[in-house]
Every structure is written in structure tokens, then in C-alpha cells.
Amino acid sequence: MTRIAGMAGNRGRNLLNIADRKPGGAELAVVLTSSEDAPVLEAAAERGIPTEVVPLAEGMSRSEHEKAVLEALSAHEFDLVCLDGYMRILSDTFLSEAPTTLNVHPSLLPAFPGMDAWGDALEANVSVTGCTVHVVTDATDEDGTVVESEVDGGPIVTQEPVPVYEGDDEESLKERVLYEGEFRAYPRAAKWFAEGSVDVDTDAGEVSVDVDVASTDSDDHNGLPTRRLVSDDRADTLRYGENPHQDAAVYADYTCDEASVVHADQLNEGAKALSYNNYNDADGALNLIKEFDEPAAAVIKHTNPAGCATADDLTNAYEKALSTDPMSAFGGIVALNRECDADTAERIIDSFKEVVVAPGYADDALEVLFEKGNLRVLDVGELGERTERFTEKPLVGGRLVQERDLQSVSVEDLEVVTEREPTEEQLESMVFAWQTLKHVKSNGILFTKGTETVGVGMGQVSRVDAVRLAAMKADEHAEGKDAEGAVMASDAFFPFPDGIEEAAKAGIEAVVQPGGSVNDDDVIAAADEHGIAMAFTGQRSFRHD
What we know:
- By secondary structure, this protein is an alpha/beta fold.
- Helix content is 29%, strand content 23%.
């Protein structure tokens, strides 16, 4: 366990934050200050942390005071010294006897060293400042006089950027640098020292951190960064969030080269702007149709596909997608992976839609679409490659980051496990279903025929219920098609045969699923009993948000 000697000048909020968080298991062994009135003393005592006070007596030299500090600290065991607003420049009298000493400075050094980093940043009219955790080095001459050019000049351990907003004053910026910068950077540095990941070469004036790299020890996770620094610019303030009582905005990453609804041109400028839910659903729709090389169309409602299809032409693909669940498609989002033509546009406006997304529009198609005043028409430009590697989900207190699910399967990847072999058409349908199912919220079940959806069972807590829902959608909501003879895809394995039993009742003739359950043999036996062909993909496609 790493024990820290904290030296504070006043409130010591950084030290208390480290004490409360215990980064890497590090703990404060003692808090020392030169003022008996420093609020940090009471706060430390409330946490059971020993305290020391070493006043700066009249006439006491820098060296004498530092020796007194060392004497007071000698009663405590510690491995690291952390300064927090300690208003004394330290010399080699202290630094040569103490372990590595760190300080946090409220700017991105070497910019704005000195006492008024916040005011200096505001005066310089910068858009970004931040904080720096650095190793403290001697900034005095032989007589103990401070050499201003060497203050805050030690090697940098870590930094944290913080934006400067219009209207900021020194106090507001100071608070934000503390809470958004120092409260992140200082515990991070303490954690690295606690884990033995930092190498300080005082003579060379260098610090190296083994773990602060964009990879891990495992080849399976190469490229996941130790820290994720994200800087997005607010593109627009939205009317509200998912619900009217929630404020919301959309932020843009201008380094993204991939086709995106955030960067799309809204062609009918007179229509109302996209809402929070429009952005979310349109993004889901666009991601789905990017899966296919053939002409493809999808209708999305609440981020789930109400229908999806590929065909020889775009109009046919859209009609097949819409007919899966035209009732649920009301008020939905349409996405196309080809330039929208007039015939497809005519069919889109036959029922109420919120947004249409496509990589371009024919002039006569725009004339048709513009007839609907509040149908937002988004041109995302050429679809191109999917270049964004990661997706993320914000959590309270953090965020989850993962690689995008860019898996795909081919017919050759499928492992047939039943007595009955799938037909060529069923195999093609399995591949289509798998690429579509990735975009259905788990537990997800998809019924398909050829390369069109027939029924979608999404977001159920029971996989059996998801099968029942897909069957109900296929038989009661689909137009001109039903579940009889369809292929069923499941985003995860069937833990029991009951899902296959329900599929048989619906008329399913082939199943594609990951496999891997301890009860695979029972599930396969149930498929054989009902004459259902089944293939395993060997990979799962959960989607939980």
C-alpha cells in the first residue's frame, strides 16, 4: 500500500479527494500545514488522518522551515508526498530527503505558471486550460532565493484539459479546473504511483508511465486507451431530450469521416430541426443499412427495426421493409443505402414518417419529399467505409467503451448442426437475418424470408417471449407475409428447447443462432423432432441499448 504525506496550505480539497477515493489503494498517512487555522486539519481529523502543523516562525529561513517539516513528518511512514496549495517553494533541503514530491498546478504547463494561472488564462483569451500534475524540483538558488523561471518546471506526470467558456470569471474557472481537472488528474497520478507504473528520472528531468499507453497486455484488447479524452463541439441545442422536461444538445466530432446523421445536411430547411429522439433513431437506422452492399431500406422505431430488406432495387427494398410492420412504421425513421429516387419517395410519403436518411436524392425525389412539410430529409453523403472503431455508453460516474459490433457472417461460416440441411435460400436468409439482428435490442428474435424481415421480437426479458412476439408481429401485423416457412434468428443461444418449441408452433423451418449453451444437445434434438434446420454462428450479437 502506498502511503502519502499531504502538505496543504488551506482547504486541501485535492488531498481530501484522494483520501476519499484511495486511488490504487493509496492512503493519506498524514496531512501537514503551516497554519493552525487551515480547514484541512479538521477535515483530515474527521477522516482519522493524523495531522501536523509546522508554523513559519518569524525570521525562519526556507531551509530551517523545511528541516522542521521533515522532522514533523519523520514520525509517519510515507512513500509519496503530494502538495495541495502549499504556498511554499521547496528546495533541495526538503526534496533531497523526501520521496518523490508531486504538485498539481491549475494550468496546462508550461502555459501559465505562477500564482494566478486562472486569471492569466482568461487574460490570454484561451479556449482551453486545465491542470498539470508534475514532479516538484528545486526552484531556488544557493541562497534560497526563488528563481521564478524554474517554478512549476518539474517533469510532467499527467495533464487534464478543461474548456474555458464565454462568460467565465476567475472564480468559475477556478472551480471547474478543480472539479473537472484536478479531481481527475491528481488521483490518476497517485494511482499510477501506487501501482508502481511511474519511473521518475530526476537527473534527466523525465517521467515515464508504463500504463499510460493505448494498448493492454492482451492481444485481444489491443488499442483500448488507458485514458479517453473526448472533445466535441456543441452543434445545436435541442428543443428537449427524450422527454420535454429534459434539456439536451447534440455535440459533433469533426474528426469523424464516416457518414453520420450528426454531420448530415438537412435539405428541407423550413422543416423543424431534429429532436433528440430523431437523432438517436436516425443513427440506428443509418447504422443498419450500412450493413448491406445490395440496395437496402430500413424503417426504425425507437431504435429498433420495424422492418428491413434488401432487393434488386430501392423501391422494392423499401416496400418489403415497410410491409413487415406498417402500423409500427407510423412516425418512424426511414434509411436507404442508395440515392433516393422518385418512386421510392412516393412510397415513403404514403404514411407519416419523421425522418428519411439517404446518401443523396434525385431532384424529382426531393420535390416529392418536400410535399411533407415536417418530414426531415437528411443527406449523409457517400456512405463509404465504417471508420469509427468504438461506441460508448455514458453511465452515472463514468462510461462504457467498446468496439463496434462489425462482425459479419457468410454461408461458409455457418455450422449446420441438425439432421435437416438448410436450403440455399434459407442459408442466404440466415446471413441477412444475422446482419439485421445486430441492430435489434436484446433479447432479440428475427423472422425472415429471403432478404426481408417478416417479424421482429425485440427487447424482451425472456427469449421465449421474444419468439412469441416475433410470431405475433409476423402473423398479425405484416402485410402479405407471415411466419410460415420463415427463418428465425436469435441474438444469443437458446438455453432450453422451449424457444424452438414456440418457433415450431409459428411455422419456422430453419433457425440460426450462436450456439454454446450447455443444453445445445437438447435444443438440437428439439429442432430435429420438429424437422427444423439449424445452424450455429459461433458468435453472439447482443445489443442492450
